[in-house]
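Subject: for your reference before the review

Hello V.,

The reviewers asked for a structural picture of the protein, and I figured it would be easier to keep everything in one thread rather than splitting it across files. Below is the amino acid sequence we used in the manuscript, unchanged from the supplementary table.
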Amino acid sequence: MESKKKLILIIDDEEALRDGCKQALERSGYNVITAGEGGEGIKLARETKPDLAFVDLKMPGMSGMEIIEILSKDIPDIVTVMITGFASIVSAVEAIQKGAYDYLPKPFNPEQLRALTLRALDHRRLKVEARILKEEKERMQNAFITFVSHEMRSPLVVIRQSFETLKAVTEGRFGNDVTEIIDRCSKRIQSLEDLVEHWLDISRIEQGTFAQKRESLDIAGLISKSVEEMAPLCTRKGIELCTSVAPELQSFTGDEESLVRVFTNLIGNASKYTPEGGKITVSARCEGPYILAEVTDTGSGIPQDKLPFIFEPFYRIKGKTDPNRGSGLGLSYCKKIMETHGGDISARSQEGEGSTFTIKLPV
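And here is what came back from the structure prediction:
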């Protein structure tokens, strides 16, 4: 249990109300300071950093709404409650939009004041705990990124290169069983490298240091580059890869490299779920102020109960036609890239009837 008394600030131009609230709260074991107008209250709050502030809605000079907005910005952990003699849904909603936790309509009795104080301070405790947990998560994530970058990436590169050398040295000298073992190890190492790179990319996106380049792009060019890159894979698997792009689509601003990776990720995923003889279509059209691009396949589809989770990090659905499991970060990467471009990505699917992923880009 915390031994430090909670500090409560009362800002109200009615002296009798300030004194009454002060006495009621001090009897409950709180430290209380008061101010008769907004400027004085803000100055006191900045100096003392109170845990909770009760602010009157109607005061001469600065309004309660303005005070709450300033306090919420200046003191992130403070909880504010609006005191109002003009209790209405409109004023309550506006106060909460400005950052208030709740509102207290006049007239009120000491029990109502104390009950709301308990709730507000409990809310503050949860708010502070959530902030601390968030900061701890960010610290751990940054530490993990550093670890991955320096302690995992370099050894994986060395191991992969060693396997490539081993494969070249042993070629033709051993049986198929040895060659298959080396190939499997090489693929697993490559999967680990891909996982590390995906995770680092997502971390950079969240930190705002990835996909920062902005230039004028056209969707036809992006699709053409993506299809050209993925065509050999689809050919090997016996899958038809085709495009259908509407003519004269408007240009948009974005990071070309990251958007090409979005399309290649989607085409690569589609190839895992599409059997030989199937088809993947990449299309684009204009719809209002947006360009809509779609990657559609004739594969096995996604079960409805799994569809809501496919953009979550590390969530994977094993392809029936591809025994190799991905990193589980590809679709999460796609979603975050689209968010950095002010766009969106969504999916619809019927099991056994294929899937369609839709990219929405503002023009």
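For the response letter, the relevant points are probably these. The longest strand covers residues 279-287. Residues 135-207 form one domain.

Happy to draft the paragraph if you're swamped.

O.
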